[in-house]
Amino acid sequence: MKKLKIAVIGCGRIAVVYQGILASLSDEIDVVLAMDKVPERAEAFAAHFPGCQSASDVTAKGFRAALQQTRPDLIHILLPHHLHAEYAIAALEEGVHVLTEKPIAITLHDADRMMEAEAASGKQLGVIFQNRYIDGVQRVRHLIASGEMGAVKGAYSLLAWHRPPSYYECDWKGKWETEGGGVIIDQAIHSIDLVRYMTGLEVVKIQGHTGRRVLETIDVEDEADAALTLSNGAVYAFFACNYYTSNSPIRIEIDCENAAALLTFEHMEINWKDGRREVIEATTANGTSGEGYWGKSHEKQIRAAYRALREGEKIPWRPQDAAKTLAIVNGIYESARTNSVVKLNG
Known about the structure:
The structure is a single chain. With 346 residues, the chain is α/β, with parallel strands linked by helices. It has 2 domains: 4-127, NAD(P)-binding Rossmann-like Domain (Rossmann fold); 131-283 and 318-343, 2-Layer Sandwich (Dihydrodipicolinate Reductase, domain 2), CATH 3.30.360. It has helices at 15-24, 39-46, 60-70, 84-93, 108-121, 135-145, 176-179, 183-199, 298-311, 319-338, and strands spanning 4-9, 29-35, 53-55, 74-77, 97-100, 125-127, 152-160, 203-211, 223-230, 235-241, 251-256, 259-264, 267-272, 277-280, 342-343. The chain has a 9-stranded mixed β-sheet. A 6-stranded parallel β-sheet has the order 3-2-1-4-5-6, with helices on both faces. Helix 5 (108-121) packs antiparallel against helix 10 (319-338), helix 6 (135-145) crosses helix 8 (183-199) and helix 8 crosses helix 10 (319-338).
């Protein structure tokens, strides 16, 4: 089996997850390039992979030059939100597949530009939504799609996490122009995406509210709630804040005609109306490390992406799908800003 050549740009907090996973896949890949604007971070990442080059010139010219020199098959983009579009487009234009961390971008305009670059390049763009690979999530998606759980009657999600002021002491967190928002786009976007994914339904109407209640040093919201009307008429009740005292396990419930499914972090319970009960625990991935609240499923998505490239299939998840989740996020912000109902076309 020919090894894939892999590059990484952005060697900050999330990079520890990729470092462990990529090391565990050394029989399938060669990591050929690690880039970061801080030379020491790029060098430290590269040191874990024999023959890997490090680079810190992350200007447009420097980025393209590094890709031209190392010729990776795929690059992982682990950069601040506002840089996803710029670097993804450049990589695609250089003939490199891209797998970027969420969100796909800050704006739908940038997401469109990324999809246009993908189409023009003949290469692929994928977006990380690792929690879709949680075993219980996969089970509920199947049960709803097959009709076994019956029609979706409603859903809710609750995220209550802790982000101290020190979390925002960097050059991009807590700012609209670089992070694109606060607790919704950075943390609770996963909850929104999982409801979309498990139910197979799209949000068509948004009535949202955001606020900055406790974290007064940031520009963006530290709490949000919304009533999200799904395409079958059911309502998804969305709640999030990041000023709690700890990272409480995220809760997502989907109530259907025949059963209700409750996800608590990565633990899924399905309670059937006839008295049956299913419990699905998440399987552990070998290479996963980093913050516990990131979950265990990055490795599953990365393995799936590499397998898709080798087999000539589409890498997950498609940018068109990721853009729909971003549209909901931005729709909540728009509804809150204008104090009005926002309608989406799904």
